[in-house]
Amino acid sequence: MDPSIDPMSGRPALTPELAQEIAQDIGRITGFNVLITDPGAVVIGCGDLARVGTVHEASLEVVRTGRPATHTAEQAGRMRGVRPGMSLPITVGEEVIGTVCLTGVPAEVHRFGLVVRRQTEILLEEAALLRSRLLHERAVDDFVRDIALYDPEVVDAGAVDARAVELGLAPGPARAAVLLEVSPADEGAAAVSRITVLRTVREVFRDRQDVAGVQAAGRYVVLAAAHGERTAPGRLADACGHLLSLLYDRHGLDGRMAVGEPGAGTTGMHHSYRDAATALRTGPAVFPGDRVFTAADLRIPHLLGSAPRQSRARFADAVLGELPGQPDWPTLRETLIGWAEGGFHLVRVAERLHIHRNTLLYRLEKIGKLSGRQVREPAQAIEMYLACLTDILQESATQDKVR
């Protein structure tokens, strides 16, 4: 429960922490000593900390009548804990929830009384609104983490679906998980708050059925509603590219993103998240230099990556033989990948690799001699292509372990 919200009425509550903050802020602005009491006339906020916890007797009548009152030195002397000045009721709706009092000559403080009272009520309402927003942000963060960590053996999907409804999300539409990882582009750059990053994220993913939250430091999750034009291939990826440009230009942040396949309900969104997380992990190895990765483009590496590490290693060793030991192995591997993805078409593959057709023929012949395989036979070439992707994944995993 938000401490600035009364649990019974749902209205802003005047807590001691908030009262002390308001008393000090208004005191600095006006130059007067400001005192705030609860409905029982107990001081809960004051520029003079020695008065906190004492009783301000004049406030009892102000709370009872709901009307301001001034106190001369003579009147104050007859009451407990009261100094010359003015006391005003703090009201929320029609309820008096406390008083705000200014110490000074009544004629002088009277001019500021109504302004101070209204400012106190505004600060109280703003504090309650801010805390309410923070609670909402926390609920959103908890929800995206629930989706990321969902385990049907432990958590009931219906409970997570219910939380989505509480956040204003319709349960029907499919959503695609979009993952964002960011870090400062320059070492020593000023840190950027999560709220600032989220504000930019929500500017791009602004559909009413989108939800964006923080999963961990530097890692954000968007559950983007997949409907209308967004179902077109590449549309969400284009939005990711635009977001990364904004984050760099406005906040000096480098980043990379991944998009999962849309899924409905808790289970579907969790699968989308898992796909996006895998794409974010394997994408940079398979497509170095790219910043946006889609699960749809990484299905084969995803499938290879799901195999046990030792099984992958044995497969790559059996198919590639001595090729990985060659000084020009990165070039030969790039050639094998381009050969398969270019449809085994000499001219098209040469253009894809930006080399002459004769250079491609020379490389294919060299690969065939070193491996003892028929590279121009599609079945064997596909096997070598998969082994090359496996080798890339193995290499990336080794580098990650070293880091």
TrEMBL record:
Family designation: Belongs to the CdaR family.
Domain CdaR GGDEF-like: 156-282
Top-level taxon: Bacteria
Designated name of the protein: Transcriptional regulator, CdaR
Putative sugar diacid recognition domain span: 14-146
Transmembrane feature ranges: none
Domain PucR C-terminal helix-turn-helix: 332-389
Pfam families the record matches: Diacid_rec, GGDEF_2, HTH_30
